[in-house]
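Is FE2/S2 (inorganic) cluster placement plausible here? Inputs below.
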Amino acid sequence: MYSKKVIEHFNNPRNMGEIKDADGIGTVGNPVCGDLMTMYIKVKDGRLEDIKFKTFGCAAAIATSSMITELAKGKKIEDALKITRNDIADELDGLPPIKMHCSNLAADGLHEAIKDYLSKK
Ligand code: FES
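Reply from A.M.:
I modeled the complex. Tokens:
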């Protein structure tokens, strides 16, 4: 079963949408279920000034996307790169074991967006 926090983030996802002039974009897909997530970041002075996401996926994928934007916003790039899927799951008061892979999408998507930003510098 999902925790209350997962359901809350699924019902009211934070930072959902797209940043038109994003500094970095990362898209990742889950080969198992076919779900897809794109993360957009805006960077200022080495910090993640803004993050938005678009996720076509299950409830856990949407809740973890929402949670990672909250965890990473305002953080230095180096620190944002250290956020793991376990951090996201912990922050959501846990995920059902068969849904842990969904939190990979959120962590990987953010990491890809940061890599994209760094490659353009
Ligand atoms: S089932 Fe696909 S990301 Fe959760």
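Short version: The chain has five helices and three strands.
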